[in-house]
Write a structure and sequence with these properties.
about 500 residues, alpha/beta, Jelly Rolls, TIM Barrel, eight-stranded parallel β-barrel, six-stranded antiparallel beta sheet
Length: about 500
């Protein structure tokens, strides 16, 4: 879901917007051309005109693709809108249309394309998309063409609906307060969610610590193009940028949250070019020495940026992620293994300890810890790393389903990690169910509660527990409804099982 181009310009037309919401009421609008153009106008240098014909809005006299019927809407930054319009044209066998938005702050106007779709001759075609506006003063939604800039066309049934879940965050008990005497309770946040003020209010109320879902993984931080330029003079150089995560970091800082960093060394979501000479994806692998130097530059720049801009906010960091193979319990033969060698994990922690700010806890992180032979391989690696004194803890990814693994297996895995003497955190927690039938929701609640009981028994060793997401509908496992809040932001039985079991209906 990278870019559905759509451009919104905003002029806040309050007259004639009978369905437009006040600050506390959602915007639901459907075009009605029974008494005229309903606030729509021609966006052009003056040549184009709009008129109403047969229950539709006709635009003609266009001289460029951007000439379009447009309308001002008082959108709210961070809310999510569903947009739909029917389009018809009678000139070409096929023409491409774009729903766009023009937005502005002061005199500066910028644009986004939301969705692009072909419309066949003489056929009313429905075009739909979603849009979450950023913070602008004005928004205009409009329909334009791509390439076929002068054809007349019609639109009808243009609708926009605010689908943002409305949260009563302040009326709920707080997870972070519930577990404050045991460990930090938190979650993960992504760059799409951070634009939704209601959702982030809920997260700030419930969480004491957060992790970026994808925005601090190597492919998000490493700037390959700039690194390639730097490598002409120094093969060990690394260019790093923080564009993808800065909004999340700013939000966490403003709300007084702690952060857990994720991740430096991983076989996935790491640019292939990072391991290659000249940062060319098809070049030869660099030497062990160059790779370790690149890793050090990557870590040092990251830690320096975080300490300079968000001092003390990061309390822990995943240095290596998912290094143990599921089937064998041995090290995964990743690029890190091939380029650096069998000691790549130890060397990564050594470099991290040298670069990290004082007091930052350094973690190994992995999934399927409850199963063998992986659990045995993880414990063996942890015990091998401990003597060097560079690792602080182990993070368990608990992406589970009710009954799989069993509570007994989960308890045994936590006890096995605890026996190493290292710190523990549950870095990624969710519990899937097949459907939202009442019996499944109750079983999910019981499973969550049992996991938390295990962790509370080791509270003196557990630093944090983080659910992997906020709403079921936005989870990477959305089909399995795995989180504590449903898609509308309402607490599920699992939430109440952790905060106030008496609220679960008998």
């Amino acid at each position: 879901m990278k870019r559905l181009a759509s451009l919104l310009l905003c002029l806040c037309l309050i007259l004639s917007l009978t369905a437009i919401r006040a600050e506390d009421a959602p915007l639901h609008y459907m075009s009605d051309f029974s008494e005229g153009t309903d606030g729509w106008y021609a966006r052009s240098a003056g040549e184009a005109m709009v008129s109403v014909e047969g229950g539709a809005l006709l635009i003609e006299g266009r001289t460029a693709a951007w000439n379009s019927p447009g309308r001002d809407f008082p959108l709210i930054a961070g809310d999510t809108y569903e947009i739909s319009v029917q389009i018809s044209q009678s000139e070409l066998t096929k023409a491409t249309f774009i729903v766009s938005v023009a937005h502005s702050n002061g005199d500066l106007e910028t644009y986004e394309n939301l969705v692009r779709q072909d419309v066949a001759k003489g056929v009313w075609t429905t075009v739909t998309c979603t849009y979450t506006p950023g913070p602008f003063d004005r928004y205009v939604l409009y329909v334009e063409t791509s390439g076929d800039g002068t054809i007349p066309f019609r639109i009808r049934r243009f609708s926009i609906r605010d689908t943002t879940a409305k949260f009563s965050a302040g009326s709920l008990p707080s997870l972070k307060e519930t577990f404050a005497d045991d460990f930090l309770f938190g979650g993960c946040v992504n760059s799409f969610q951070v634009r939704n003020s209601g959702l982030m209010s809920l997260a700030a109320r419930q969480y004491a610590i957060v992790t970026c879902e994808n925005e601090m993984k190597p492919d998000a931080l490493i700037d390959v193009a700039r690194s390639r330029v730097l490598a002409k003079d120094d093969e060990t150089a690394v260019a790093v940028h923080f564009d993808s995560c800065k909004a999340i970091l700013d939000w966490a800082w403003a709300n007084g949250l702690k952060m857990h960093g994720h991740v430096f060394v991983w076989h996935s979501q790491t640019p292939e070019a990072f391991f290659r000479e000249g940062y060319s994806a098809s070049g030869a692998y660099v030497s062990r020495e160059v790779m370790l130097a690149r890793l050090e530059h990557f870590m040092q720049q990251t830690f320096d940026f975080l300490e300079a801009n968000y001092p003390g906010m990061f309390v822990s960091y995943d240095i290596c992620n998912e290094v143990i193979d599921d089937g064998t319990g041995r090290l995964r033969t990743s690029n890190w293994y091939k380029v650096v060698g069998e000691d790549f994990v130890a060397r990564a922690f050594e470099i991290a300890r040298r670069c990290a700010p004082e007091g930052l806890q350094l973690y190994l992180n992995d999934y399927n810890t409850a199963w063998q032979p992986k659990q045995g391989g993880i414990v063996q690696l942890l015990n091998e790393l401990k003597p060097e004194g560079n690792i602080d803890g182990y993070g368990l990814q608990m992406h589970h389903a009710v009954g799989s693994p069993s509570i007994a297996q989960i308890r045994a895995s936590v006890e096995a990690i605890a026996a190493t003497g290292l710190r523990i955190r549950v870095s990624e927690l969710d519990v899937g169910i097949d459907s939202t039938e009442d019996a499944n929701l109750r079983a999910q609640a019981d499973f969550y509660a049992a996991i938390m009981d295990i962790l509370k028994a080791h509270a003196d060793q557990v630093d944090g527990v983080q659910v992997w997401g906020i709403l079921d509908s936005q989870s990477w496992r959305s089909k399995n409804h795995p989180l504590l809040f449903d898609g509308d932001g309402q607490p599920k039985y699992a939430f109440w099982a952790l905060t106030d079991p008496s609220r679960i209906p008998q």
